[in-house]
Amino acid sequence: MSALFITATGTDCGKTFVTAGLLRHLRARSLPARALKPVVSGFDEASPGGSDPAELLAAMGEPMTPQTLAAVAPLRFKAPLAATMAARLEGRNLGLGEILNVCQTAMQDPRGPLMIEGAGGVMSPLAEGATCLDAIKALGVPSLLVGGTYLGAISHTLTALAAMRAAGCAPIAIAVNESEGSIVSLAATMAELAAFAPGVVAVAIGRGERDFGALARGCGLAGSPAKSV
Ligand SMILES: Nc1ncnc2c1ncn2[C@@H]1O[C@H](COP(=O)(O)OP(=O)(O)O)[C@@H](O)[C@H]1O
Ligand SMILES: [Mg+2]
Q1: pTM of this prediction?
Q2: Ligand 1 pocket check: which of 6, 12, 25, 52 to mutate, most ligand atoms within 8 Å of Cβ?
Q3: Ordered structural domains, the chain, with CATH
Q4: Whose CA is closest to atom 2 on ligand 1?
Q5: Is 37 a catalytic residue?
């Protein structure tokens, strides 16, 4: 697999957490996985610490330099808004073609699989007139849907799944990422999803999860056995 698009039911669901976990897992197993966050909003050039690009570079074991930042997150905007809105505030109209181009160029790099982190949720605007789902469809790459366990997460996950299926882009797997302070347990959410979405590959990710092996396998990503340290 050359690329995996990581999307979610909404913002703050854990796309970066899961992407970083997959990157670390694969890289520890001699698969030089790379990350791309084609569009990032809410990015402060003067204080990039803790941002998505910073987290992804750290998971790749790379320092943040102007070059590595440009490679992992070429389109960066300051306002913490949807990508299109943040870009417009800087006088830019983001076109889907430009974003696809960024992704396709990165996908041509022969090094290990490319983890493409979307922005917001699966139907968040990514470019003028185009959502993340439109980008997934146009790229024709497999996708991973990240959902939570907060009250209401099952509806959001099933809604996202239905939209993705309707677009002919069913996710290869769902990462059920335990939400902070959730009153619904991970096990209960898993059981409910299994009942309402039978046959879907769903992988539980706990708070502070460190083992991304099951998720990597669920996404069809395999590496060599872990390097002993
Ligand atoms: N399973 C988890 N365990 C601990 N912290 C998590 C987990 N999932 C997400 N987080 C934290 O929650 C916040 C939002 O997650 P993030 O991955 O940035 O979401 P997204 O990329 O979808 O916007 C981050 O601070 C992240 O580290
Ligand atoms: Mg993120």
Answers
A1: 0.96
A2: 12
A3: 3-218 (3.40.50.300)
A4: 207
A5: yes
Tell me, in angstroms, the distance from the centre of ligand 1 to residue 158's CA.
Answer: 20
> What's the angle, vertex CA 23, arms to CA 124 and CA 20, rounded to 5?
50
How are beta strands 125-127 and 130-131 bridged, if at all?
A: antiparallel
pLDDT along the chain (229 residues), means of 10: 92 98 96 97 96 98 97 98 96 97 96 95 97 98 98 98 98 98 97 97 98 97 56
Ligand nearest the Cα of residue 37 is: 2
Residue-level pLDDT at 115: 98
Q: Which ligand is nearest to the CA of 22?
A: 1
Q: Which of 178, 200, 153, 194 is nearest to 9 (CA)?
A: 153
Are the C-beta atoms of residues 220 and 1 closer than 8 Å to each other?
A: yes
- Ligand 1 within 6 A of CB of 12: yes
10 is written with which tokens? 């909404």
DSSP state of 187: H
Residue 118 tokens, joined: 């979307």
Of the candidates 37, 78, 137, 227, the residue annotated as catalytic is: 37
- For ligand 1, say whether the CB of 8 is within 6 Å of any of its atoms: yes
Per-residue pLDDT tens over the stretch 4-52: 999 999 999 999 999 999 999 999 999 999 999 999 999 999 999 999 9
